[in-house]
Amino acid sequence: MILVEHAAILLIAFPLLGAFITPIVGRVNSLFRDTWVITVLAFTELLAVLLGYDVLQNGISVYTLGARLPALTSPSGIPVRIILEVDAMNAFISVIVSSIALVVVWYCLGFMNQSRVLDKLYTLILLLLTGMLGLTLTGDLFNLFVFLEVVSISSAALIAFYVHRGESLEAAFKYMVLSSIGALMVLFAVALIYGQYNLLSMAAVADKIQNTFLDEVAMVLLISAFLLKAGSVPAHMWKPDAYGEAPAPVAVLLLTSALVCLYVLFRIIFTVFNPATPLLGWVLAILGVSSIFLGVSMALIQNNLSRLIAYSAIAEIGFILLGTGSGLIEAPYLSMVGFNAISGGVFHILNDVLDLGLLFLAAGAVFYLTGERDLNRMGGLGHTQPLLAVFFLVGIFAVSGLPPFNGFASKMMIYESVYVFNPLLAIIGILGSILMLAVFVKVFFSIFLGVSPAKGHGKLPKSMLAGMGVLVLLIILIGLFPALVVDYLISPAVNALINSQNYIGGVL
Amino acid sequence: MNFVLDTGVGFWNPLVFVAGLLLVLLVSYLIWSRGEKGCQRGVQGEAFFSGDPAPRDGVRAQDLYWGFMETFKVYYEWMVNLHTGVINDYVAWFIALMAVLLILVAL
After folding, report:
1. For A170, A285, B17, B27, which has the most beta carbons within 10 A of its beta carbon?
2. Chain B within 8 Å of A178 (Cβ-Cβ)?
3. Does residue A275 have a cis bond before it (omega within 30 degrees)?
4. Closest CA to A142 of A187, A102, A174, A97
């Protein structure tokens, strides 16, 4: 019970503590270090699940730092302390984040087994997890900025992991410059809000917001910064550089952090600046279709596997923006179509991280076996690695939205809802999905089919196969039972997102 | 428990789809099993490759969808030129996004 009561702060504190202890534990031996990191991640996952269950059963959970009791949010009518506020939406995101981190580190046990700097890798992964969970759970605008910086710094260091490669350093430098500019915009927006209302609590700001000109400037700054971090067109260009140069498991975490930034974007639009105008919905929907079209068309001409998946990730972000933007135009509080469009977008956050996560991990496995990222120099891997080929194929089918895999369910929800209010946007989305399949047919053909290579490949470590296997299992299960996921996870999350009064009432 | 996903204007039941897929696979297997028993591997003939001899090492990734890329050559040249890889351009695009949003939303 005490664990559940303090779960929100423990979710941030435990991986942070784990990060700083990991280099010390690493001095003992590698087995002890690996066990320690997996234990920290498993415990974090357990906390996220317990907190999510508690929120689904008992409603919004708030945690006030420094208060005599965690529930004492505003002793004098104004919230002055740092508050973590957890509803079904951010509980859902925190379960995704902690689960992906656990899968990624499990995969790293095999993928990185030759590396001599694993202490640093695990420390940075735990710091990144801390930042992502902080971004997800915080109910305070200034802490949003702080956790965004934690995410940016740890991500930049992880992108530069292959430090002997000039391209990795260049990608990390570009990411750092853009992240710093984005973070400055967030800080400026927070200052504009604080200057007007003397408040930093998101719930209190949402309650007092007057939608003045300065509020709208602050909203634009926040939206632009989080669109940049999510990698939407036209601020997407850092993504192929960063994903292409980072180790494959790190790319999965970068993808997860982009989806966390999308969650923050939605929280700002739906909660802090509620009611957001339908015009903003149009902006998001048009950025969404632009991301879909540009992402898949540029993916088609890539020959570097990681860069190709990175462009696909831009397109997938587009589907989420299209669904949510369309839902915003359709007034989700009043219209079932709007609610379903946003549900499709939120459902696609989960499916996106599973499908593209699997493809990134499979691409990492291909690199582990061949040492190649260039599709022109690959071929015939299916003869020696049939299980990897099957995993890759599941990822391809899921990301392209083929039934009965999970990507189909969320894309269907998006297409049907978007079609009701604007068929053209839905048609562009469907064309994007078809092109996505064409892109990955090329990838599968180039890697797994064709003439078997003269020299044999090694074997994949069991931990890598287990990491990918877990994602395959989840993809198939969610694909077969999407209604259960929507009923028990997505609908409560979307209800929490669009009903800002509940979020405000949790604090005031 | 509800196994049918209601999308608001339609529905999706993956279990029925999987059952249908299994049925199609079963029928396909039955047709295949009644095929020519004496058919040997390698007698199907050479793969058709636009009248040219098929490359021994297979088709390279960069040559796939050549026709598509040739048709959209102007678009691709424009797109590739936009993606310069220069950080100044990345920042410029971010500022442009911010400026457009500011004009649309705040003004």
Report:
1. A285
2. yes
3. yes
4. A187
Contacts with A296 (C-beta within 8 Å, 6 or more apart), sequence order: A311, A312, A315, A432, A435, A436, A439
Cβ–Cβ under 8 Å, residues A106 and A151: no
Residues found in chain B:
107
Asked if pLDDT for residue B56 goes beyond 90, the answer is no
Span A357-401, pLDDT tens digits: 999 999 999 999 988 888 888 888 888 899 999 999 999 999 999
Is residue A181 a contact partner of residue B94, using CB atoms and an 8 Å limit?
yes
**Chain A nearest C-alpha distance from B38 (Å):** 26
Which tokens sit at A328? Answer: 């915003």
Per-domain boundaries in chain A: 2-507
Chain A positions in Cβ-Cβ contact with residue B19 (cut-off 8 Å): none
Task: Return the residue in B3, B101, B102, B103 with the most chain A beta carbons within 10 A, the one to mutate for interface testing.
Answer: B101
Q: How confident is the model at residue A449 (pLDDT cuts 50, 70, 90)?
A: confident
Domain ranges for chain B: 1-34, 69-107
- Matching residue, tokens 């999965």: A252
**Can you tell me the distance from the alpha carbon of B61 to that of A170, in angstroms, rounded to the nearest whole number?**
26
CA distances in angstroms from A52 to A90, A317, A488, listed in the order given = 9, 24, 11
Q: What's the rounded Cα separation, in Å, for the pair A325 and B2?
A: 28
Query: What is the reported pLDDT for A387?
Result: 94
Locate tokens 């939205």: which residue?
Answer: A401
Task: Kindly state whether A336 is in contact with chain B, defined as any CB-CB distance less than 8 angstroms.
Answer: yes
Which token pair is B82?
Answer: 């936009």
CA angle A322, A325, A330 (to 5 degrees): 120
Contacts of A344 in chain B (CB under 8 A): 7
Q: Which residues 6+ apart lie within 8 Å of A326 measured at CB?
A: A281, A285, A338, A341, A414, A417, A418, A421, A422, A425
Residue B45 dihedral angles phi and psi, to the nearest 5°: 95, 170
The answer, yes or no, to whether residue A456 has pLDDT greater than 70, is: no
- For residue range A71-98, list pLDDT tens digits in order: 777 777 677 788 899 999 999 999 999 9
- Selected for mutation to probe chain B from A220, A222, A422 (highest B CB count within 10 Å) is A220
Instruction: Find the Cα–Cα–Cα–Cα dihedral B73, B76, B81, B85, rounded to 10°.
Output: -150
**Considering the entire predicted model, what is its pTM?**
0.94
Task: Inspect the interface and report whether the beta carbons of A185 and B102 lie closer than 8 Å.
Answer: no
The reported pLDDT for the residue numbered B42 is 66
